[in-house]
Every structure is written in structure tokens, then in C-alpha cells.
Design a protein that fits this description.
- This protein is about 40% helix and about 20% strand.
- It starts with a helix and ends with a helix.
- The longest helix has 30 residues.
- About 30% of the residues are buried.
- It is elongated and about 85 Å long.
- It is of the alpha+beta class and about 475 residues long.
- The chain has a 6-stranded mixed beta sheet with strand order 3-2-1-4-6-5, sandwiched between helices. Strands 11-15-18-19-20 form a 5-stranded antiparallel beta sheet, with no helix packed on it. A 4-stranded antiparallel beta sheet has the order 7-10-9-8.
Length: about 475
């Protein structure tokens, strides 16, 4: 049995191009039968696959024997002379902090753990112990929840080129027989029999009933269905990506996707749903909490007569329709009043917005053909005009500040004569009301130089007699890092 199991695993790994020569593979081991079969199978193949293995285990601290499970995994890693990384997380606390179920929080914590260890040891793959029975359970679970083909395609053997499932071609019965043949006894996780969890009810109640009363090969049938739907889903994803690029309006804003409503409505609804999901994925990287109902609500707002609408989405995102633009973005930060002094050379962190401004001074004579930015997220000003705001132009420093709007704020927009209330500017530019207090303004004394993200003041613009300039760039801390 051992030799047959290992040969079959080798064929499956090669067939799906899971591991390349010289790669370091994290092996996620819980101590249960599936993960131990994965560990011992890959260990037997490590020479043939020319790869290195590194065991990882996340202690969720959910059960009294959780520490014993971690020690059990450590012992098996030591027995096979493999490096092992174990980490503890207080899962109930994380679930409450993230406002997720314990199951959903556990999944997020595990993948965060895998990513951190991958980066730390320069690994390229993460091997997970999902098998054919898991695929059948996942298909049924998603069917019950009302999922589309994205959910019914089950669990892919390879995801994102990094996460691999070498046991996806095996049944639970084959896995248990392999462990018996090599004399390995797995740990029993009592949560796997807790029928408070939907997956466990499907595993212990629904599937046995379907096997006995309807189809004894139901798991194989569901696995095949998942294979068919996976291929069809991949085809639709390709078509949706092409449509997404056609509909997308390129902007400089970070963490925002903007689609053209007119172009979007030309596509079939099957592609529209996938384009919306892709928009969410691009911002958060996680679509696990985005359900069919969310997509339908977005589609209803897109087709509605109202030209402006707002819809909250999971994980701190929102969908916004603004006339002929469809915008998916992170919810605006509740800032209150803020003000940060800005240095004229170097970086200033705007902590409340998780952004920063980089400033530099220069002489025009050294850059006679200096390119002028568009005034949205990069801006240039006549440095001497700024200094003249103050009574003493010999001052080496003066109070440049980034703040949000205040009552009575006015400025002279670039290219215009006369001043305008900031409030009226926001209305004319169609800045949503709930965003206006988080729009940063660069001010000098009581004069506004720059409405960041929109435009600059005409008063401080570069002119033919300008000798010294101040150049500013605004970006998120994540982008600049």
C-alpha cells in the first residue's frame, strides 16, 4: 500500500506541476490523518522531487489538548529530521477582533501564518492536506449556501501557483490505509465531529444519507462535477478579465477600482458578476465573504434610475455608483479634525490617513524644462511666493500644514480668477459628502495651496520668473514602502 500511495502521489504532483526542482515547500501539519499522510508522502518523494520540506503548525488554542497537538507535530518533524515552525494564536480573541466566525478567522490566521513563514524562509510553495472527500463536502456546502460556479468548482489542486494539494486525488479511506501501512497513528481532533459546524454535519450526516439512499458513489460524482465546473469557471474568468480591462477607468488613486458603467452594461450578467468579484479581489485580495447577494445588490444599483448610490460590502469595503462610474473602494477613514506640520525637505507622515508627503526644494535654473505635474497627487509651487505669505521672508522655515477642511475655507483653483469656497468646490467636483472631511488640504498660514487628489491653487503656481520651486508627492505608506 505504501509504495502504491507514494507512486500515485508522485504522478499527481507531476501532472499538476506542483513542485519544481530546488523549491522549498511548507507542509501544513495539524496532526490529523490528512496532514500526516501529506507529510510522510512528500518526505518519501523529496529526493525524486528535488525539494526541501519545512513543517508548519498553527496552534489555534481552541481545545484543551491544542498544546499537545503542537508537540505531536514537533515530534513527527524531528523524527523525519525536518525543520518546523509552530505559532500560537488566541483564535477566539482574533475572531472577535476581526468580527468573523471562528472558522473564518481560523482560515485567515492560517493563511497569514503561511505567508509570513514563506517570506521568512524564502519558501515558494505551501502544501495543504485537502483530499477528494473534502472536495465533495465543499461542493455540497457551497451548493447549500447558494453559491455559483465559483463555489461549486470545489478545491483546486493548485491555487495562485503557491498553494498545492497533493492529496486531492485521494479518498479519506486511501489516506487512512496508507498511514496504517507505515504504522503512523494520527491525532484525533474532536472538533471534526462537532456537528455545530456545517461541514461536519455534511460529512457525518448528509453524505452518508446520500450514499445509502441515493448514490453510493456520490463523493466521486461531486468531485467530477467540480472538475467540470472548474474548467468552465476558468474560461469565464478569462473572459471576465478581458471585460474588466475594457471597463476599467485608470486612475492614480490607491486601493480603488473604477469601472465605466456604460461599458460594463454591455457585458453578459455572468461576466458582470465576475468583474465585480475581481474588483473586490484587487482591493482586498479576499472574496471569501463576498456572496451572491452582495453582487446582486450592486447590479441592482447599477441598473437603477438613481445616479448616485452607496452599498457597504464585507471587510471594510464599499460599492459606490457616481453617475456613469462604478467605484469599489475601502470605506473612508473616520478622521475627525487633524493637522500635521509638513517639512519642506523630506517626508511627513499623515498617520490618520496612513499616507505621507515627500517634499523637495530645487532651483529652476538647473531644470529649465521641468515637467509640471497634474496637481492631483503630485504638485509644484513657487517657493518664494509661499515665503512671501509671512512678514519676514528671511525665515528659514514656515508653517506648512496638512489638515482637513475648516469652516469658511476658500481658495483660488488653478486657472481661475477669484476665490471659491471649499464646500462649493467639493459640491461642483462631486466629492461625496461622507468623504469631504478626509480630503487632505495643504495650507500655508490661512491660505490653501493644494486640495490633495484634486487641484492646486493658482496663487502659488510656477511662472516664467520663478527661481525656486517646492515639489510635493502624496502617496499611501504602503505604496511608498
Amino acid at each position: 500500500m505504501k509504495a502504491d500511495f507514494v507512486r500515485q502521489m508522485h504522478r499527481f504532483v507531476v501532472q499538476h506541476k506542483m513542485i519544481e526542482d530546488g523549491e522549498t515547500v511548507l507542509v501544513a501539519v495539524s496532526g490529523g490523518a490528512d496532514s500526516l499522510a501529506l507529510l510522510y508522502g512528500l518526505h518519501a518523494l523529496r529526493t525524486q522531487l528535488s525539494c526541501k520540506l519545512h513543517v508548519v503548525h498553527l496552534n489555534h488554542c481552541l481545545r484543551p489538548d491544542a498544546d499537545a497537538d503542537a508537540e505531536f507535530v514537533q515530534q513527527h518533524a524531528a523524527h523525519l529530521e525536518l525543520p518546523c515552525t509552530i505559532q500560537r494564536v488566541e483564535m477566539p480573541r482574533l475572531a472577535q477582533q476581526w468580527k468573523l466566525s471562528v472558522e473564518a478567522a481560523g482560515r485567515r490566521a492560517r493563511y497569514q501564518f503561511y505567508e509570513s513563514v514563506t517570506t521568512e524562509i524564502d519558501a515558494t510553495k505551501v502544501a495543504l492536506g485537502h483530499h477528494q472527500d473534502d472536495i465533495a463536502e465543499t461542493v455540497l456546502m457551497n451548493l447549500i449556501r447558494g453559491s455559483g460556479t465559483t463555489g461549486l468548482k470545489g478545491i483546486a489542486p493548485v491555487r495562485d501557483t503557491k498553494f498545492i494539494r497533493p492529496l486531492a486525488g485521494f479518498t479519506r479511506q486511501q489516506i487512512e490505509a496508507f498511514l496504517t501501512s507505515i504504522g503512523v497513528v494520527p491525532k484525533h481532533d474532536t472538533t471534526n465531529t462537532d456537528t455545530r459546524y456545517l461541514r461536519n454535519r455534511i460529512r457525518h450526516e448528509l453524505i452518508p444519507r446520500l450514499e445509502s439512499d441515493y448514490n453510493p458513489n456520490i463523493k466521486t460524482g461531486l468531485s467530477r462535477t467540480a472538475d467540470v465546473l472548474r474548467a468552465e469557471s476558468e474560461y469565464l474568468d478569462t473572459a471576465a478579465r478581458k471585460g474588466f480591462e475594457i471597463c476599467r477607468i485608470q486612475q492614480n488613486q490607491q486601493k480603488t477600482v473604477v469601472l465605466d458603467r456604460v461599458e460594463f452594461r454591455k457585458h453578459h450578467v455572468a461576466l458582470q458578476r465576475r468583474m465585480l468579484r475581481q474588483s473586490v479581489s484587487e482591493i482586498s485580495g479576499d472574496m471569501s465573504d463576498l456572496y451572491f447577494a452582495h453582487c446582486e445588490k450592486m447590479l441592482n444599483l447599477i441598473e437603477a434610475e438613481a445616479s448616485n448610490a452607496l452599498l457597504a460590502l464585507p471587510n471594510g469595503l464599499q460599492f459606490r455608483r457616481a453617475y456613469q462610474q462604478l467605484i469599489i473602494e475601502r470605506k473612508p477613514i473616520e478622521t475627525g479634525n487633524f493637522a500635521y506640520p509638513v517639512v519642506t525637505v523630506g517626508k511627513t507622515s499623515i498617520e490618520v490617513l496612513n499616507t505621507e508627503i515627500t517634499a523637495e526644494l530645487g532651483n529652476i535654473e538647473f531644470y529649465p524644462t521641468l515637467a509640471l505635474p497634474d496637481g492631483k497627487f503630485e504638485a509644484i509651487f513657487d517657493y518664494e511666493k509661499i515665503r512671501k505669505v509671512f512678514a519676514d521672508p528671511s525665515l528659514e522655515a514656515f508653517p506648512l500644514t496638512v489638515r482637513n477642511r475648516r469652516q469658511g475655507d476658500r481658495f483660488q483653483p488653478y486657472g481661475m480668477h477669484g476665490t471659491k469656497k471649499i464646500k462649493d468646490f467639493f459640491i461642483d467636483t462631486k466629492v461625496p459628502r461622507y468623504e469631504r472631511d478626509s480630503v487632505p488640504l495643504l495650507v500655508c498660514g490661512d491660505q490653501i495651496l493644494w486640495i490633495i487628489g484634486y487641484t492646486t491653487s493658482d496663487v502659488f503656481k510656477i511662472e516664467s520668473d520663478t527661481r525656486q520651486y517646492l515639489y510635493l508627492r502624496y502617496a499611501s505608506n504602503e505604496t511608498s514602502a
